[in-house]
Amino acid sequence: MNLEFETIPFEAYDGFKCNLKRVITEKPSTLGPLLFVHGSGVRSNLFNAPNETNILKMASAAGYDVWVENWRASIEFEPNEWDLDTAAINDHPAAVEKNK
Fold this sequence. Notes:
Blueprint: E1 4-11, E2 17-24, E3 33-37, H1 55-62, E4 65-70, H2 84-99
Parallel strand pairs: 3-4
Antiparallel strand pairs: 1-2, 2-4
């Protein structure tokens, strides 16, 4: 089973453009949203290992509404200056708000 994703752009509170990717499923989630956030220097696809099963597939199959976040430290974006405080204040709360 290969996962399909919907990409949802969002702006961090300071205007930096980030995105969320939501796993597309045919059945509605029963357990609510689950947001995965990668570390620095990688991208959200880190969680989507090309195996028969991975953490995103398992969470989706269990009934979660699965989301992954690409924040400013993602290699998805052009290099930029950032620190963890900036991301904690601007990126992650905006991602959670967009996820509602």
